[in-house]
Amino acid sequence: MKTFASALKPSLALSAAVIGLLAGAALANAAEVVPALHDALPEAYRANGIKIAAFNDWPPDEFMENGELKGWSIDMAKAMSERLGVPFHFTGTSFDAIIPGLVAKRFDVGFSSFGVTPERLDSLDFVPQRMEGTAYAFPSSKSYEIDSEDDLCGHSVAVMTGAWDYQYLLKVSKATCTDAGKPAIDLQQFTSQNAAELAVSSGRVEMVGAGSAKLMYLAKQTGKFKVSTLISNPVQNGIGLRSGDPLGPVLRDTLQAMIDDGSYKEILDKWGVGGGGLLTKAVLVTKADPDPK
Q: How is the chain split into domains, by residue range?
């Protein structure tokens, strides 16, 4: 008589075959390890992999959905891991925890859409992934005309705690607004991007200031926001790691390999952000060399 276990064997065999085919397909789609990049890694990273802190609330760059990290920057990180031939160990976390975590060596690299600023160069090096600037989004029912930074004077603007937009807009508020006898920009900080956007959609704050790609994605996904024509202070935006870590040049060279083989633009196009701000040359930005060519 056929037992339950014996009846199950063909199904198990079929499942194993299917799993094998899927695994084979995944491997076929994965990029090959680049030996020169792998060999350039410091021994500790070759042995243990790389600990990645990823911002969990910044679509389409990095965000958490159904318990999984997603976004163009996450896809880029995975593609870099494939070429380096070492695992990236991802932790999704809030933005304000990432720089202290890098400094304290809880993380090795932050994929967090960091704007490269002089203040951050005191403790971090950066491998930019694209150019980005601050835009301003407000409810579609409003008719604000934000065509220049003068137009921000007297308005309330929500920004995320720790974001470079806050420091920049503080300077704009003084130089463009109060020094010229105009009302200051009312800057209000929130601990998450969702909270900043909710403050605007609920009418507590007039507009939210954040990366232009992020706000264009918000407007497209929700249909409830308009985005300003103004894009302030475009800066390099990308990957952060501890100052002087020898991993920096390896990540730079890995990104260059992706620019050269076209996968860099493919990833950005997939997420709808490949239309502008793209790089043609990967660089490592440090305090000693803040404007590499």
A: 35-132+235-270, 133-234
